Amino acid sequence: MYTQSLSIPDGEAKGPRKVENPDYLAEFNAKIDAGGFIEPKDWMPEAYRKTLIRQISQHAHSEIVGMLPEGNWITRAPSLKRKAILLAKVQDEGGHGLYLYAAAETLGVSRDELYEALLSGKAKYSSIFNYPTLNWADIGVIGWLVDGAAIMNQIPLCKCSYGPYARAMIRVCKEESFHQRQGYDLLLQMMKGTEEQREMVQDAVNRWWWPSIMMFGPHDKDSVHTDSARWGIKRISNDDLRQKFVDATVKQAEVLGVSLPDPALKWNEARGHYDFGAIDWDEFWSVVGGNGQCNVDRLAARQKAWDDGAWVREAAIAHAEKHSVRQQQAA
Ligand code: BYC
To answer: Ligand 1 pocket check: which of 68, 101, 130, 288 to mutate, most ligand atoms within 8 Å of Cβ?
Structure first.
């Protein structure tokens, strides 16, 4: 998407932009302070570039690993309508992965390098996708809570300082909004159904609530990438986003008729926010460290997709080479 239109001569793009220069840095900081966008051809500090590659690629990995828990239910959707919606949603997630990989590539890293980091376990992806989808209500709850949390985190990224990432986020957020609504709609339907269906919804909410609020990352005091805020990448902190999400979701749970599994969840008049219970950070770090219920399966599925796709990559390269030879012959 972005990479195709770049065509920066190697010397110009990679050489000078790596040199740390106080004048370039002043110009860069001024642009960030004025709320402007940094574009791929602009000079940027090496640490900014690395932080962006880390976050954008982790985000891309989350999208394509995130296809798996829901993709697992496409063949078991209870109606044609729900199947079509789920199919469209999972395809959207694949598309988000593509925009994000393309945005990361504008920073001078190759898709192969990024993928290798995912498959070797070096790169992270969102903790949430290491939990299993056990019943159909999980699909609704993923839309409502997981996509809901993702939108809360991604809306501020539409104004982040790196142009290709910010622009990708605008479309992603529009699609996430549809994802969130389809999930909530699915759950509303189930809540109007039988007692057993209502129990399925409550069971799914009980299992996904805590992992969803963990998605925002560690408490601010334990968040290590503080430069991200200074550079206008992260515009709202992990804890502030988590609080916004909790505040918005409590009312939605009431309308739905489910309870959220936290006895400490209570409106705090003085703060103007809901208080909530302690997060189990041991569980979070264990899942992030590869020991969640599904980490091994998720990486195995992505590895298989990579291996199965080898012939497509080879065919695309052969096709491009054939065209390039023809163009040279015609010139
Ligand atoms: N899971 O200093 P911190 C979707 C890591 S997909 C795993 O606060 P940062 C969807 C963090 O990477 C949406 N790791 O980091 C798809 C760091 O480790 P490293 C995914 C996590 O970057 C399909 C360490 O903890 N969204 O919506 O400032 C179907 C310290 O954290 C997590 C994005 O990727 C986690 N949850 O802030 C349905 C959004 N949290 O890198 C839905 C873009 C933290 O030093 N990313 N860590 O090894 C971000 O906004 C930020 O990267 C985060 C973390 C807020 C996630």
So the answer is: 288
Is residue 3 in some structural domain? no
- Residue 226 is predicted with a pLDDT of 81
Site to substitute for ligand 1 among 74, 159, 223, most atoms within 8 A of C-beta: 223
pLDDT at 17: 54
From 52, 58, 130, 176, mutation site for ligand 1 pocket: most ligand atoms within 8 A of C-beta: 58
Whichever domain contains 257, its CATH number is 1.20.1260.10
Residues of the chain with pLDDT under 50: 1-15
Element spanning 275, H or E: strand 273-275
CA of 125 to the centre of ligand 1 (A): 7
260 in any annotated domain = yes
Ligand 1 centroid vs 23 CA: distance in angstroms? 32
Domain encompassing residue 252: 22-330
Distance 271 CA to ligand 1 centre (A): 27
Task: Answer yes or no: is 177 within a domain.
Answer: yes
pTM recorded for the entire structure: 0.93
Atom of ligand 1 nearest to the CA of 51: 22
| The predicted structure's pLDDT at residue 1 | 39
CA distance 154 to 78: 31
| 177 CB-near residues (< 8 Å, 6+ apart) | 151
Q: With contact defined as beta carbons under 8 Å apart, do 180 and 162 qualify?
A: no
Predicted local distance difference test score (pLDDT) of residue 295 = 97
- Residue in the block written with tokens 């309870």: 259
Distance 61 CA to ligand 1 centre (A): 10
Atom of ligand 1 nearest to the CA of 93: 23
Q: 5 lies in a domain?
A: no
User: What's the pLDDT tens digit per position in 289-322?
Assistant: 999 999 999 999 999 999 999 999 999 999 999 9
Q: Give the total number of structural domains in the chain.
A: 1
- Quote the pLDDT of residue 331: 82
